[in-house]
Design brief:
The protein has 316 residues and is α+β, with helices and mostly antiparallel strands. Helices cover 25% and strands 39% of the residues. Strand 9 (220-227) and strand 10 (233-243) form a beta hairpin. It is globular. 25% of the residues are buried. Residues 1-21 have low confidence and may be disordered.
Length: 316
């Protein structure tokens, strides 16, 4: 079995998160490998767990660091240390649960440790944002629950929230389905979590995030040129820094066309500053003799910042 990239590990369960602004989701993804794949592939751990609000990571745990940590400033600010301590113990317990069940699945399928096997669990909920014109306020309405397992990238077992039953998506899951269906308290807990507790947390986290957005900080934008290795060339740099939240659009354009990696554009991506704000820098190497018009566009929706500037004489 070929090594798995972090992107592959996140996509094994399929694309179930909804980007529509009127539907929101809270999901937790747990990924366990049957054995470590070593230091050759940094960033891939034997066990990882992460929480996602819509598509943004809000907390994280892995088997190497053994601590549940916040991934959004407002999560750190709003939730007590007791929340993170209990979350860490819960993640450690689930890590052990996954290890035991990976061994069970390997034995059930007559598999060995010659290959890496992957067990994933995703659970959470989706809800629609409904506006009440009478009360002039918004509220979340439960849309569906998510509780599904995959094994080696294939759907294995999932909970049918509407019919209060487990569904075996693979023949090897039939034994687990029968066993779990017989435990009514497990089905009641699963249904209750998906429809009530998860929705409560989704509402709370969205409120925390909105409160933080009230303190959105616009970026400071800097355009400058730096020498390239070849004397006839120059790098055009566009840097945005000091902004919060981290979502930002930054484009370098040539005669109005957005440049991409195919044009040899490079980017640092979004990086944190020491003051809980963020920065990003993109650059493109061009000929000094290039007479085209180059500009940088920066849009930071949270702070209603929108600017486009040209290098002009800065190109040297």
């Amino acid at each position: 079995m070929s090594p798995l990239s972090p992107l592959t590990l996140l996509s094994l369960l399929g694309t179930v998160l909804i980007a529509n602004s009127e539907r929101h989701s809270l999901t937790y993804i747990y990924t366990a490998l049957s054995k470590s794949i070593g230091k050759e592939y940094p960033g891939i751990h034997e066990f990882t767990a992460m929480g996602l609000l819509d598509t943004k990571m809000i907390d994280y745990f892995d088997s190497d660091h053994q601590t549940k940590v916040p991934k959004q400033p407002w999560m750190k600010e709003k939730l007590s240390q007791d929340y993170w301590d209990k979350g860490t113990e819960s993640r450690k317990s689930k890590q052990q649960w996954f290890k035991v069940n990976l061994d069970i699945l390997k034995e059930r399928m007559n598999q060995t440790d010659d290959e890496v096997h992957v067990l994933q669990w995703m659970h959470g909920c989706e809800a629609d944002l409904i506006h009440d014109p009478v009360k002039a306020e918004d509220h979340l309405k439960f849309a569906r629950g998510i509780d599904m397992y995959s094994y080696n990238g294939d759907s294995f077992l999932y909970f049918d929230d509407a019919h209060d039953t487990w569904v075996a998506a693979a023949k090897e899951a039939q034994q687990t389905k029968r066993k779990w269906d017989e435990v009514q308290v497990l089905k009641d807990y699963t249904k209750g979590y998906l429809e009530k507790e998860c929705l409560d947390w989704l509402t709370k986290f969205m409120d925390y995030g909105k409160q933080q957005l009230k303190h959105a900080k616009p970026p400071k934008v800097f355009l400058f040129a730096t020498p390239a290795r070849h004397a006839d060339n120059v790098f055009l740099n566009c840097m945005a820094t000091g902004f919060y939240p981290p979502d930002i659009l930054l484009n370098i354009l040539r005669n109005g066309r957005v440049l991409t990696e195919d044009d040899k554009l490079t980017t640092t991506g979004i990086r944190p500053n020491e003051d809980d704000t963020y920065q990003r820098k993109d650059r493109i190497e061009i000929l000094r003799s290039d007479s085209a018009n180059y500009s940088c566009e920066v849009v930071h929706a949270a702070s209603e910042f929108n600017i486009r500037r040209e290098w002009g004489e800065l190109r040297g």
